Structure of Chorismate synthase:
Amino acid sequence: MSGNTFGKLFSVTTFGESHGPAIGCVIDGCPPGMALSEADIQPELDRRKPGTSRHVTQRQEADRVEILSGVYEGVTTGTPIALLIRNEDQRSKDYGNIADTFRPGHADYTYWHKYGVRDPRGGGRSSARLTAPVVGAGAVAKKWLREHYGTEVLAYMSQLGDIEVPFEGWEHVHANPFFAATGDAALVARMEEAMDQLRRAGDSIGARINVVASRVPVGLGQPIYDKLDADIAYAMMGINAVKGVEIGAGFASVCQKGSEHGDELTPQGFVGNNAGGVLGGISTGQDITVSIAIKPTSSIRVPRRSIDKEGNPVMVETFGRHDPCVGIRATPIAEAMLALVLADHALMQRAQCADVRVTTPKI
Amino acid sequence: MSGNTFGKLFSVTTFGESHGPAIGCVIDGCPPGMALSEADIQPELDRRKPGTSRHVTQRQEADRVEILSGVYEGVTTGTPIALLIRNEDQRSKDYGNIADTFRPGHADYTYWHKYGVRDPRGGGRSSARLTAPVVGAGAVAKKWLREHYGTEVLAYMSQLGDIEVPFEGWEHVHANPFFAATGDAALVARMEEAMDQLRRAGDSIGARINVVASRVPVGLGQPIYDKLDADIAYAMMGINAVKGVEIGAGFASVCQKGSEHGDELTPQGFVGNNAGGVLGGISTGQDITVSIAIKPTSSIRVPRRSIDKEGNPVMVETFGRHDPCVGIRATPIAEAMLALVLADHALMQRAQCADVRVTTPKI
Amino acid sequence: MSGNTFGKLFSVTTFGESHGPAIGCVIDGCPPGMALSEADIQPELDRRKPGTSRHVTQRQEADRVEILSGVYEGVTTGTPIALLIRNEDQRSKDYGNIADTFRPGHADYTYWHKYGVRDPRGGGRSSARLTAPVVGAGAVAKKWLREHYGTEVLAYMSQLGDIEVPFEGWEHVHANPFFAATGDAALVARMEEAMDQLRRAGDSIGARINVVASRVPVGLGQPIYDKLDADIAYAMMGINAVKGVEIGAGFASVCQKGSEHGDELTPQGFVGNNAGGVLGGISTGQDITVSIAIKPTSSIRVPRRSIDKEGNPVMVETFGRHDPCVGIRATPIAEAMLALVLADHALMQRAQCADVRVTTPKI
Amino acid sequence: MSGNTFGKLFSVTTFGESHGPAIGCVIDGCPPGMALSEADIQPELDRRKPGTSRHVTQRQEADRVEILSGVYEGVTTGTPIALLIRNEDQRSKDYGNIADTFRPGHADYTYWHKYGVRDPRGGGRSSARLTAPVVGAGAVAKKWLREHYGTEVLAYMSQLGDIEVPFEGWEHVHANPFFAATGDAALVARMEEAMDQLRRAGDSIGARINVVASRVPVGLGQPIYDKLDADIAYAMMGINAVKGVEIGAGFASVCQKGSEHGDELTPQGFVGNNAGGVLGGISTGQDITVSIAIKPTSSIRVPRRSIDKEGNPVMVETFGRHDPCVGIRATPIAEAMLALVLADHALMQRAQCADVRVTTPKI
């Protein structure tokens, strides 16, 4: 409960720093009897890992996952599943004045004031690298959800800076380096050019990611506090660099009338999904639709004003291998977080409402 | 942990339904030695209660709070503080076909499918009335924060439907029925007219609320998962009708460059607050700034298509006393939720980092 | 999580002090669809309440329970069930020097040092009176267990001071004022005489209580940390005045050989129950057998040495209505705690292992 | 919260099985700024490890601990500390019929029925080997307690089967293979002879361990539910093979009068410690004294009746390297668990009562 555990029944506790010996997590609560091996997890990690295109950091990390426990003869036993990823890129390097100054927009400042000590190597625990164990845990949650409910969780980039990218189909997502759901080659080229310019300028940019879960069981979520949408917001805002979260119509709801927003029902199902698949904190059975805002990374080459630990003014430039748009690698992370929330609530629903049988046809 | 408890160290467990005998909460973890009486709590409840203007529901509820425990001779003892609010308006009324049908955009549908049973009286537990105990608990958190850190948490309505309301100063917030931070009488008149039209039309509208916490200690928040901003997102999305949450620059971050977004530091302090007072999940000591989207209420007189429990098509109209814009009464709720998050993290910070003394001058 | 909540999925949060306005609890996680009314709870409270014989405190409290929420038309809705018991005996009385001194063996001393403030009225929160809400919550858990598994939880006094009382059958438990499972009138008379002597001497005595749960499902308990027996030990040691807990053979295991202790299995079932129904932290399906040691109450008339708040030596005598043996009223409390542990683990088992179907015939 | 996490603020999540790739734990909540290296942890593990005398299992395991995270330049950073211990003894061996039968007194039976799958290699997760990570985590807690309060936690064996061993001083504990606090060579010889006989007979025996924490701050513990003694009972009963827990006078309290049990206070301090250092669930500042009963191990060579997975009768003998008395290696485990409970409550106390200043001289 000291902050590094996510979830109540299907829970994940992570550990590690960017340049320490290893990073990893312990997944507690995955039900027994599910086939599981590293082959279920590694592909998800590979989607997140650096170096997949020139638009993301070129840091070389194999990010090879090892299952340390909780699986016997290829099947989960119901005991904790520990995942370990050794850090290969631990070389001691020149951090310049990073260790003694604070990068604008970076957690340097707050870690120092909170803990009185910080690990400056690659951002330490605040590094986006720490999303790797989460992606690993999410792979386990995804598999369990798929096997039990047919649930699928998928994400795509819907906006890169001011370039909005319409959704044209899931088949496009892995056919471009941005995980955008478009087949429009000109649009992709525009994105590539924007990224190349940024890289040359040593600057970075924000992005918007959409996440969708389909075939979600109806009834997930607790009506007050642990609402499904509240837990989704918690999960999403907890991803590095996220500054905003929307469910369903999101901020567009502000300008909607009730007669427009409330999704009507017919015997054939809901008409529209302004709710984003959640009403009163509980899943409706429709697609869960989430949209998140990712800020531009703070580690840039553009010189910026800051202070050092003594409070003296300094200029800070961050050299090294960084992502001009951290949003690009965020799609598997967002999927993982949503999957973990759903698996957690699915177990909670089994605990509390295992005996419920309603008469209404589920639509 | 079954969903009805909010917070870990400064925690609130609520109970009750809109038209049951009573609603209330148990506040666990409020430190001992603080002066506390109903007079500290009642004014906050009065701000939230119905009937304060023609623009909110006319339901008559005194919402008189009683402290049942945890206070001895006017001082908190460190034991649980139970708050009780008796429901006065329990009269049996004609719910028409509400009990057997599902209002579009309402939790009716999901409660029924989750629990197989539901309390249709005034929305039961999904009623916005259940925010009253939260406001009560928030008053206790606010007082504790104020006494220990000088922290203040304030909210205002920044948008009503498509009417944007600029922030012109806190002194205006209680001088108009919308809790808007404007002294522009023409703008307020425009809002009143918009509301009157809606009420006549039997329709409802969304709103945007901004919440600001000032004089927040630096160092609150756990870097992974229980980040301060993640917990704020959880708290805000958990408020009835909220569909979106932003911290700092929020969704505007998507179009920002890193050289623009990252708030520079000087010996005199931060230059700008795109971060919204949180970096790496930890408070910077700047103002915490949050913005939330509130959907239009689903209980409207405009007839809408729905189904009944057997899945047959029906038309639904909701008569009775309802809020054309639930956002109007949401400011004290948003303040309460943010105060509860801050108090919780402040206690956590005392637990973990009580010995930390950094050399940097806090700015 | 600040200490006043018991259980994870079937959880109870209590509040109140002995002489404050009210005591009560919030039960969170009771599944929906179970018939429930005050009539299910009141009889359990009546067993615990004072004044049932001359051997217990003569304080007059009706201990009338009111269900405030979570039940609609006589059926649980899956939302929190709040129980309220008003304190009738709040008369201001002369506490003599109790408020400024510390009774030997009493929580006076520790409350004062922990909180810096304490409620001396009747022991405040440390009063045994605070077990009343627990008994109420236990009644709900008992009913749920009975309906779902046929589980019964029963307790009896097996020792009063140095008088050991053999188990002769459950039918005797309510036929004597000590809840002893004996039909031996001479033995009961011996107990009555011992109690009368104590009362005249203004002294108190300890007791041993045995608790048995029968028809417990196999598979309850988490193998490390949240073992069923660990949670039972936590629950039992948490009852006021308990100083020791045994499961199964308990301390007798120290002198046993492995060939003697390990309960053999045959196709007809286990041979013996040294395990007390728990192996490796998980229920075997046999009876859960627990034994607890209850210390003599510290509130006695015999003068004792102590100090006051300034550290000066004083003599302390406690006048008023007290129990010469708090063990007498402890049987419903021990039953309630065991029932709550079992209900909690039963829900956890549904969450995690709902799909498990083993081939071995359950014995 | 799925059972494999211990503690709330200073928490430990363990993972691993006896013969899987590795075992370990994640310690979350250890405050920043404490010097820490493997050298602080390894000695505690070495006390617990097998093969230290002929009286314990001869399994060869180096039990070499590696710190994976949470420490930078030899100092804790406030982030999770992961400990990893690779299993060296993973050789595939002949488990005979263990995988298909149930050892009397062993968790085989319950794991199978709970999970429908089990890892039979060396007991899998139910192995006493899983106490190694706990001992590692306990070493961290011990160091923190020592540095902050001077607290020391020590244990000794006070009874081996029916041989009672009086406490004669801590200096004796590491001078005999039983961790007994006696300098009586004849008594030790009697214990050795008893053990040699048992080993020859292929049988096992129980033991009693006493644990003492000295220089404990006053005020640790929450008065209802998370009482210090309740959490100690939970911690102790959760150790493999423990069947009973006593605090202070324990079961002897049953026969005590109130005038005898309640520890008097004088300006110089408490007179006696029947309370075992806890009153009303809160520490008094005296020594915390705990005693636990450890059952004889169930893995013995003596043939015993059991059944196989199909329910057929079988005879079971357990060959291999086992402990004739698991109590011998239990002292570091009991110390670790008590240290973890105290560290957890110490952090909670800082959170809730950081401002409390009482006037009474602490005695």
Q: What stands out?
A: The longest helix of chain A spans residues 331-353.
